[in-house]
Amino acid sequence: MSIDLVRNAPKTPARTASIKSMEYSMRGDAKAWLDLFADDAIVQDPYGPSPMDPKGNGHHGKAAIEKFCAAYIQPDRIRFEVRQTLSSGGACVNVGTIFAKSFDGRYAWNEVINVYEVNEAGKITLLRSYWDYEANQKTAF
User: Fold this and answer.
1) Global confidence as pTM
2) Is 125 helix (H, G, I), strand (E, B) or coil?
3) Which residues contact 7 (CB under 8 A, 6 or more apart)?
4) I need a surface site. Which of 24, 39, 46, 74 has the fewest CB within 10 A?
5) Are strands 124-130 and 37-44 parallel, antiparallel or unpaired?
6) Predicted confidence (pLDDT) per residue in 65-112, tens digit
């Protein structure tokens, strides 16, 4: 699984933040991942209601994102395969597949569209991840 397509694409601040976000997630480097975000950032992963965010409002601000991070950004749990990347202004969109290992050792995959928006300092202000939690659970093996 690879994010090389994004690594080799023309660099923009949002694309650079997306690369770091995926790299840190795959390594399980929660501190480095959290440091990518602005203080008032929003993480919606997945977008809409799910067991990870029952109300579907997202995780607002560093304290809420830190709780999300503690629960889900762990070593060797997430892999990305990116097939397309688009960047415009302060935003980047990556399209591909995410593979995740659950706490019980099962693997699941899902198609994903990740949207990253950054501020002038290159900090992520919005990470919105479109994927279907229920469909993901049905792919577990």
Assistant:
1) 0.92
2) strand
3) 19
4) 39
5) parallel
6) 999 988 888 877 899 999 999 999 999 999 999 998 877 888 889 999
